[in-house]
Amino acid sequence: KFKNASGQVCQIFSFKDIKATPDPLYELPGQCLTPSPAPIVIDNGSFQTRAGWATSAAELHTPRLLFRSVAARSRGAARSETQIGNDIPNLEPLRWLLKSQFDRNVVVNFEIQELMFDYVFTHLGVTSEGCVDHSIVVTEAPCNPLHCRQMMSELLFECYRVPHVSYGVDGLYSFYHNNNQRNLQLPQTGIVLSSGYHCSHILPVINGRFDAVNCKRVNVAGSQAATYLQRLLQLKYPGHLAAITLSRMEELLHDHSYSAVDYHGELEKWRCPEFYEREVHRMQLPFSGKVPGGCVSVEERQERRTQQLRRLQEINSRRREEKLQQDQERLDRLMAVQELLEDGLLDQFHKSLVELNMDSAEELQSYINKLQIAVDQSRQKLLQSDGGEGKAEPAFNMAEYHQLFVGTERLRCPEILFQPSLIGEDQMGLMETLQYVLARYTPEQQEALVSNVFLTGGNMQYPGMKERVERELLAMRPFQSHFKVTMATQPALDAWFGARDWALEHPAAGEAEGWISRQDYEEKGGEYLSEHCSSNAFVPLKVAKPAPARPAEPSATSQTSAGAPADIAMVTSASAYVSTNATMVTT
Length: 587
What we know:
Helix content is 42%, strand content 13%. The chain has 19 helices and 21 strands. It has helices at residues 110-124, 146-159, 170-181, 222-236, 246-256, 263-269, 273-279, 298-343, 346-355, 361-387, 398-401, 409-412, 430-438, 443-450, 465-476, 494-505, 518-524, 554-558, 564-586, and strands at 2-3, 9-14, 40-44, 48-53, 65-68, 71-72, 83-84, 98-99, 102-103, 106-107, 136-140, 164-169, 190-195, 200-206, 209-210, 216-218, 281-284, 403-406, 453-456, 485-487, 516-517. Helix 8 packs antiparallel against helix 10 (361-387). The longest helix has 46 residues, at 298-343.
């Protein structure tokens, strides 16, 4: 912090520009093997992947791996040359090479997903040949498409030959974990507002089960806020386009942004100059004090310029003094000639006029007046220059030129979660969507749901978010109705902790609830899901039965030759195939 010229305290911050460090290759802990192999918990997030062990050991109670869900591989490079997550120290130079397994919040690129699993298993110390002997708990998107789950199950069971797999929703795992921490009675009813990197979700939970029919998705979250902030600052500072990177914008969102409780009222506060000077965050960009191609610093150049200016001022001051002295001497001489006229010495007066090349006393008086004005002006300039010699030159501040003044952008970017129209998205905001979801329930169910409104996800960590949701709920709920809003203890990590708690309380053995065994996968298909308190609802794919073939008409049969029955059978089969396809399309 520092004080500006008016004495107000200003805040200057520097970008951290944190460089990722490669993850170590851990050895497999002994307590993860006996008495039985411990499950591996993977929070497969679109922004960050978190992986660790589901064990009660104190040293393993947190995720061992946290890395960005991105991979970088040049075209034509070998698979072994792919960089994953923390292997990439700085994302910006490789931004154009980065690939993710996600399309929004759904896994679609299973080649990248396989690389992510390889990275996780290798760094956790799993070294078994040909298979992974540990059960896997992995998160998936709400209402995950059956095809995506089928591909994920195929990857885990066929490629890694894991014994059991369990799928759950990250927001519901976080809800489960925080309810356990608060010692709430099960089963719980509530509504989860989850906002991550690509999407935000409204997840209603009725009697401990996810109501998938009434959940909704809003396609606005952290990535859109970062892109919006980058666009705003690049328009504001066109001279620093290269320095306004997406990584720095994410840092600004995480460390310097906040959610306004009253958005329009907060914008009015920013109109006040004192409020702006006090609250604006000046982000100092890195810059070099050396001149390109030289070794002279900015301070040295500034000192040289100041010395040159001082010498010029001294020279000009001497010239003004000399000119003033000459004008004063000439004025004194003219005044002496005029005194000859006043004393009546006309002969001497006219002789002096001739010497001065003047014709009359009027011309002499006019010249005296002009010269008097010039002398007075010279004296004024000389006094002003003497008083300004001690003043410092207004110098060009190189450091201030490389500062980004982040003002209203601090609240405008988080606001897109409530007003997607700010970025041109034609959809409802988070609270409008919540109101729409609540309207689908009875008044009694609505009361139960709003009595436990739960906020989770990395994009919910803005200061003031809980207060903003409470204000919006107060406006939409009936008069004197009650509601309660709770923020997750660790919005970005509680999904992993919830999945670990669930895995510890529900061991994978036999026909355990929530676990898919290899036998289930082989008998029921890859899209099969064993439901539990934090999972999606399983809706099996209904395959239409073929329509019965129509019997051939007698007239047509009687007119055929001996080879006709085979031809008729072929036509009938084709008709049945067409009917089946039509039925499936209808379904």
